[in-house]
Amino acid sequence: MVQSRHDFPIKVKELLAKRVGSRCSNPGCRQPTSGPQEDPGEVINVGVAAHITAASRHGPRFDVSLSPDQRRSVENGIWLCQNCAKLIDNDITRYSPGVLKGWKKVAESVARQSLESSQSNVREPSDAYRKLERLMPELLAEMRKDLAERPLGREFVISRRSQRYWACGHELVYYLDDHAELMNKLRILENAGMVSNITYNNVDRYVLSEELVEYLTSTPPPNQGTHPTAQKPGGG
User: Fold this and answer.
1) Are the C-beta atoms of 196 and 155 separated by less than 8 Å?
2) N or C end of the chain: which has fewer CB within 10 A?
3) Residue 194 Cα to chain centre, angstroms
């Protein structure tokens, strides 16, 4: 029995491309996806309308709760270059629906700012942030969500879910169980001056730099974090 595949209509594909200015929505890429062919009546397109959750049952990030219309809707799509479209489907744990929704919101916000501001005032992510987005998209997505909920949050601790940590009421918490090589990622952030290590009382503690906070909060946060059911600070 051939399984049905819920592909995007042409109108949805066009909407996804135009809403991000025909650039790849991966903040670590942001490459243009269309341009002129040698033939003056033709264009080159290297963009893809990728599904956030799969178009068919055995596809990447399939969500059984969605209807066929929801799977082919603009809300379930993200515009990417061909390389990034292949990348997200080859590592579905790293590139979760929450991460992809975050990318989409960032890309649409940048496109909106481009229309509302002079070109000199529009800032694309710097090379440093592009590198961070490539290396740790799921961690940055969770930080974006946390800062949307706790805009004054700066200090965070590192823990395991099996440990009981009683937060003092203001710390954010990131779990080693949730992020592969989390300590190495934090070292990269520390080397880049994005976080500072303030470990004490035998608890790994860090502080977010204002530069990183500004970057993470300059665009709307994702609708859901990488770990939507994770218990955050204050609950122990």
Assistant:
1) no
2) N
3) 18
Summarize pLDDT for 150-195 with one digit per residue, the tens.
888 899 999 888 876 555 556 889 999 989 899 999 999 999 899 9
> How far is the CA of 180 from the CAs of 52, 101, 135, 174, 200, in angstroms?
22, 21, 11, 11, 23
Listing DSSP states for the chain in one string gives -PPP--PPPHHHHHHHHHHTTTB-S-TTT--B-EEE-SSTT-EEE-EEEEESS-SSTTSTT--TTS-HHHHTSGGGEEEEEHHHHHHHHH-TTTS-HHHHHHHHHHHHHHHHHHHHS-GGG--PPPHHHHHHHHH-HHHHHHHHHHHHH-TT--EEEEE-TTS-----SS-EEEETTTSTTHHHHHHHHHHTTSEEE--BTTB-EEEE-HHHHHHHHSSPPPSS-SSTT---TT--
Amino acid (one-letter) located at 191: N
pTM for the full predicted model: 0.61
The answer to whether the CB of 155 falls within 8 A of the CB of 171 is: yes
- The answer for 234, left when phi > 0, alpha when psi is -120 to 50, beta otherwise, is left
What is the pLDDT, as a whole number, of residue 230?
40
Q: What is the CA radius of gyration of the chain?
A: 19
Which two three-digit tokens encode residue 175?
């779990």
Contact 182, 58 (CB under 8 A): no
Residue range 46-58: average pLDDT?
Answer: 93
CA distance linking residue 133 with residue 145, whole number of Å: 15
